[in-house]
Amino acid sequence: MVVNSINFWLFFAAAIIPYFIFFRNNSKLQNLWLFLASYFFYGWVDWKMIPLLLIVTAVFYFLGRFIKANNQENPKRASLLTTVGVILGVGMLAYFKYLGFFVQEFASLFESIGLNTNLSTFNIIMPLGISFFTFKLMSYVIEVHRENIEPTKDFVQFGTYVAFFPTILSGPIDRPTGFLPQLSVPRKFDEHETSEGLKMVLWGMFLKMCIADRISPWTDAVFGNYEHHNATSIIVAAILYLIQMYADFCGYSDMAIGTSRIMGLKVVPNFNRPFFAQNVAEYWRRWHMSLTTWITDYVFMPLNVAWRDWGKTGLYLATVVNLVVIGVWHGANWTYALFGLYHGLLLVITMMVEKKRKKLEKQHDLKKNEVYKWSRRALTFCLFALGAVLFRANSVSDFFGTLAQIPKGFGPMFTGGFFAILTYAVPAIFVMFFREWVQEYNRDIHFFHSKHVWMRVISIALMISYIIYAGELDGHSFIYFQF
Fold first, then answer.
1. Longest alpha-carbon distance in the chain
2. 0.90 cut: is pTM over it?
3. What is the pLDDT, as a whole number, of residue 125?
4. Residue ranges of the domains in the chain?
């Protein structure tokens, strides 16, 4: 039940009508209804994993209560319980996401030295959304231990936070400190919030259906058969795949944030115009922000404190570990670990040259130079496009095999299906970049938010018309569903 499908919107209508009509004055009833709706939604996707979700929610609910009870009277026990919570969270990820991978890797290793095993038949079904709801659970017990939030006594409220249906499958990853208090008060229908939410949903559909889904068949064809393509096709595919990733995931995030907003709940933003970043560090501050801030707060900061006696070496090492964790969070594949290592090293290089860069900018007054800024953005984009090839590769050997095609030379580009990109996706990409340029530079150009009603109506009508005309309406799955 993808967010841009008819089934989802029928479900959403069935969920929101009682939510606002019958339960509008009672937050507990609204939460119970959202709880049931969220479990129905998750069950529709993977009903066999409902018991797991319910059990781990109950375990972490009681852990939060026990941690709170021991924070003052027995801090050591509170710390131990928090550690147990973190170990349980990491353990779930290790079992469902990584155990099968490592078993297969060991089986391959044994077979390479002549030892036959049956380990390769070992298979574990990974629950959808486990990377997202597990991080919610761990952040809850950590924040309770840090006394940044009071543990909720309402299990339904906590369960609603964990299983909230717009975000459980692909985020954003909300923190309990921001989300749980919203569930303590009744949410009433608000015309402005509904209007803004619907606009976000519309924009998300535009990104997903008119850009990501239109690019996807062509990039799949190139990367799936890289040995038959030259440097031209590989480079264009790398550029397009980074745009595809952004349009796909940002599109989902906007739809999730928009539907939440309609229900009177604010979800954290996930993207902030990353293609306008001028270096790798800034790019990561703008890309998948709910994940990067989570990893930074709970992994990087503790490591940076623990290794502070090592000076810059400790800082650099913590940075690399931070990005490797972000990489392997995406899944059990050496490509993701290498992806994280690649970006960690890029960040270290960025930090190492920062002083010299600032000195150069000051000497030549470059900070306001648009040519300088856009050249840095282009370089950052290219570095991330290379990382996107690694992210997309099925294996490390596929990644290096893809890169090996580039030195073989340029030639005619693969054109199968490229006409659809030129016809449908390129105009949409132009609109996307124009909108983000307007926002980045605070230009006084408005369409969805124009003060003129006629402009708002025309803009929305054109957007809907373009989605119907140029959008891929088959309801393709989102890239981040697999994580």
1. 74
2. yes
3. 80
4. 6-188, 193-470
